[in-house]
Amino acid sequence: MQKFCFKKLFYYFSLAFVLAVFFPAPAFSKTTPKVAPKTSKKSPKKVNNLIFQSKPSQHNVTIQMVVSVPQFKNKKMIGNWIPRRIIVYQGQRIHLIIESLDVEHIFVLPAYKIKLPLIPGKKEHFSFTANKTGMFYFHCGNRECAPLYLHRLMVGQFIVKDEPDSKK
């Protein structure tokens, strides 16, 4: 027979509490929401600053990034890496300009062996060539910048695509 463990019970209750506080269930109402009538068939494009995509014809690409500790307001996460997804093409020269807004962070891109300390209010510059294709992840290497449950969210994608065929 297995012994009753208070540590496991405490762990599961604290996990349920954290999930309930930061990810509450949506409130359901009996009234249906009013939908505004559509004025035209085409909707305006939304500007998305979470994704950066370069053009295949560019040889030198400059990417300005901003980082801050993620926070939750009105069930939406604000902060983190901006942009969170970077899409470039193989062979392009990448010039990163990264600024930390709040505390010390460390930009880490393990696939390219990049580790760049970021000091608040100071812009750091770094250049490299995107020579490996695939999807790679960058993250913050400073574990003291935020509580662990927020620090785990500080991840972004660095996608390097093959050069498009110039014959088409």
List its traits.
single chain; 168 residues; mainly beta; Immunoglobulin-like; six-stranded mixed beta sheet; four-stranded mixed beta sheet; 2 helices
Write up what this structure looks like:
It is elongated, with a radius of gyration of 21 Å. The strands form two sheets. Strands 1-4-10-9-6-7 form a six-stranded mixed β-sheet, with no helix packed on it. The protein has a four-stranded mixed β-sheet with strand order 3-2-5-8, with no helix packed on it. The protein contains two helices and ten strands. The protein is mainly β. It has a domain of 110 residues: Immunoglobulin-like. 14% of the residues are buried. Helix content is 12%, strand content 40%.
Write the layout of secondary structure elements.
Elements: H1 6-22, E1 51-53, E2 60-73, E3 76-82, E4 85-89, E5 93-100, E6 105-109, E7 114-118, E8 123-129, E9 134-140, H2 148-151, E10 155-161
Parallel strand pairs: 1-4, 2-5, 4-10
Antiparallel strand pairs: 2-3, 5-8, 6-7, 6-9, 9-10
Mean pLDDT: 77
**Main beta sheet: strand number and arrangement?**
6 strands, mixed
Q: What would you give as the CATH superfamily of the domain at 52-161?
A: Cupredoxins -  blue copper proteins
Put simply, the count of helices is 2
In angstroms, what is the radius of gyration? 21 Å
The topology string of helices and strands comes to HEEEEEEEEEHE
Biggest sheet strand order reads 1-4-10-9-6-7
Strand-pairing-aware structural class: mainly beta
- CATH architecture descriptor text of the domain at 52-161: Sandwich
Strand tally is: 10
- Straight-line N-to-C gap: 70 Å
Quaternary: single chain
Q: Ranges with pLDDT <50 over ≥5 residues? A: 27-48
Instruction: Supply the CATH class of the domain at 52-161.
Output: Mainly Beta
Shape: elongated
Instruction: Work out the helicity level.
Output: 10-25%
- CATH topology annotation of the domain at 52-161: Immunoglobulin-like
- Which band does the percent of strand residues land in? 35-45%
